[in-house]
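Translate sequence into structure tokens.
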Amino acid sequence: MGVIRLAVEQCQKLVSSDRWKSKVVADGECLVWEGALTRQSYGRVMLKKGTVVYVHRVAWVASNGRDVPEGLTIDHLCRERRCVNPLHLEAVTQHVNVLRGDTLAASNKAKTECPRGHLLQRDNVEISPRGERSCRQCRIDRGRRKSQLISQARSLLGLSYPEYVEQYGQATSVAARIVGDAG
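Result follows.
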């Protein structure tokens, strides 16, 4: 569903209508939409001329008296996608919305240490061009282990580094197999 600019008056009129009220049910502090849903479980409603919009956007616009600012999206602070309670809705960037959610990106961003226990602090985090975080210390450790294995394999085979690389390449798995076979 593309972003459609919403008219404040139209949203306020819809939210105060019986059509809206008949589809909203209180559930704790949430006001849950019981009408039509998208495949992703967001409430949706059809405005005139067949335009389909998210109900949480309609609720936010009606409550705030203005359209959602350009570049922002509406985040459900309660994490309930069907909620239309204006107190549970906040205009934020898509980046913030994703990191607040229950997503892989949010989970990874929340990690404080790598699987090997190194702290993921500023000086120990590398960001790839695709935006992926990785542990700098683990990369250094892998490089050291690779160098050690290749050095051991070269020594066992009696080859110089250029001779070894020409014959066996630089794969750690090959060097580990040579060292393991010799041991």
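Note: The helical segments are 8-15, 18-21, 55-64, 94-100, 104-110, 136-157, 161-168, 172-182.
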